């Protein structure tokens, strides 16, 4: 058996999973039967999970500010300025998207490179929210007579969750 195969077989028997050539130095005083690989793996997994959770919470807080801005602008544009509900939706959502991009770039994902490309991607994801809300407004407001204010408010959590997944994987990857 080659030396590489012996190291690989030894790693498999002890559970360390040491690759050929060994990542662990030879001659260390590790008690026999101790699975050092198992002890370090949960910590390695915990950091990305903690980062992911922190990003999700920050994204939700930023999203909350965007939701308030979006909804407030929609209420003003639709109820006070008298704009058509779909026009008010596009304008208010665009304002919320821009707010969220700036705050997410700075605080959630910490990305300051390729801002124009990232903004265009972020806005493209935002357009999915506009499209989804457009359909919901058409169906529930025009079709079923539900107050557009309620439809807009009810669509926001659904849109927020969908957009987080897309933005994390595409806009800020």
What's the structural blueprint in terms of helices and strands?
Blueprint: H1 3-14, H2 36-80, H3 85-108, H4 115-143, H5 148-171
Give a quick account of the main beta sheet: strands, pairing sense, barrel closure.
Answer: none
Strand content: under 5%
The helix/strand class is: mainly alpha
Between the first and last Cα atoms, what is the distance in angstroms? 44 Å
Q: Would you count the extended β strands for me? A: 0
Q: Helix proportion of residues, in percent?
A: over 70%
> In sequence order, what are the helices and strands, one letter per element?
HHHHH
Q: What is the alpha-carbon Rg in Å?
A: 25 Å
Mean pLDDT: 79
**Low-pLDDT sequence parts:** 1-31
SS element count, helices: 5
Question: Globular, elongated, flat, extended or rod-shaped: what is the shape?
Answer: elongated
Structure, explained:
Helix content is 77%, strand content 0%. Mean pLDDT is 79; it is low at 1-31. It has helices spanning 3-14, 36-80, 85-108, 115-143, 148-171. The chain has 5 helices and no strands. With 173 residues, the protein is an all-alpha fold. It starts with a helix and ends with a helix. The radius of gyration is 25 Å and the shape is elongated. α2 (36-80) packs antiparallel against α5 and α3 runs antiparallel to α4.
């Amino acid at each position: 058996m080659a030396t590489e195969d012996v190291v690989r077989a030894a790693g498999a028997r002890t559970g360390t999973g040491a690759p050929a050539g060994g990542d662990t130095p030879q001659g260390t005083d590790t008690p026999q039967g101790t699975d050092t690989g198992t002890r370090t793996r949960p910590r390695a997994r915990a950091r990305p999970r903690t980062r992911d959770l922190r990003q999700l919470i920050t994204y939700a807080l930023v999203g909350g500010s965007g939701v308030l801005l979006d909804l407030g602008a929609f209420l003003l544009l639709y109820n006070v300025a008298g704009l058509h509900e779909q026009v008010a939706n596009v304008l208010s959502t665009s304002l919320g998207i821009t707010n969220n991009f700036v705050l997410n770039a700075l605080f959630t994902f910490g990305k300051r490179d390729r801002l124009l490309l990232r903004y265009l991607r972020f806005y493209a994801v935002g357009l999915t929210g506009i499209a989804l809300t457009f359909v919901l407004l058409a169906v529930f407001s025009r079709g079923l007579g539900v107050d557009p204010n309620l439809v807009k408010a009810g669509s926001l959590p659904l849109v927020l969750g969908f957009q987080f997944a897309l933005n994390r994987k595409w806009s800020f990857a």
